[in-house]
Design a protein that fits this description.
By secondary structure, the chain is α+β, with helices and mostly antiparallel strands. Helices cover 23% and strands 40% of the residues. The chain has two helices and seven strands. Strands 1-2-5-6-7 form a five-stranded mixed barrel.
């Protein structure tokens, strides 16, 4: 029997993963890190990216995670994430729309644009799409259109 450790992934909405695993790879704030059985104690802030693991029964697990903390202890790994989504939970259309919104904000920033927040939203949405596609979930067939709200006091081209 292969050595294993316990993995627990929890978000504010509840437990996402609670099982024995043989390996884990996660996005730390300073880069990706890996954990195998009997790993040294370790704690880090989570970045945005894919949390991949292999269960004790040989099944691959994949989550899109963003923000939070991971702690490696003698009994296993505890991940407290702001968000952690399995591929089947990801709304592709919503993620694609979020990518377009973030790209638009970054392409034409103004004094009210929080570029750091828009960059985080773009990275998170691209990760969600990658996780969904890696699990065979198809993207939407038609392009998502966004509409701009008119600015009060400005005349439109059709006026």
């Amino acid at each position: 029997m292969a050595e294993r450790f316990h993995l627990e992934v929890v978000t504010p909405q509840g437990a996402v993963v609670d099982e024995d695993v043989v390996e884990l790879t996660a996005p730390g704030i300073d880069g990706e890190f890996g954990v195998l059985p009997r790993h040294a104690r370790y704690m880090t802030a989570l970045g945005v990216g894919e949390l991949r693991y292999v269960t004790a029964t040989g099944q691959d697990g994949l989550l899109a995670v963003a923000g939070g903390f991971a702690e490696v202890g003698p009994l296993g790994v505890s991940v407290l994430a702001q968000t952690a989504e399995e591929a089947q939970e990801i709304d592709i259309a919503r993620a694609e729309a979020a990518v377009q919104r973030a790209q638009a904000r970054l392409a034409t920033p103004d004094e009210e644009t929080d570029s750091r927040r828009a960059g985080f939203a773009l990275e998170r949405s691209l990760t969600r799409l990658h996780v969904a596609k890696a699990r065979g979930i198809k993207p939407t067939r038609s392009a998502i259109e966004t509409t701009e709200m008119p600015i009060p006091g400005e005349r439109s081209a059709v006026d």
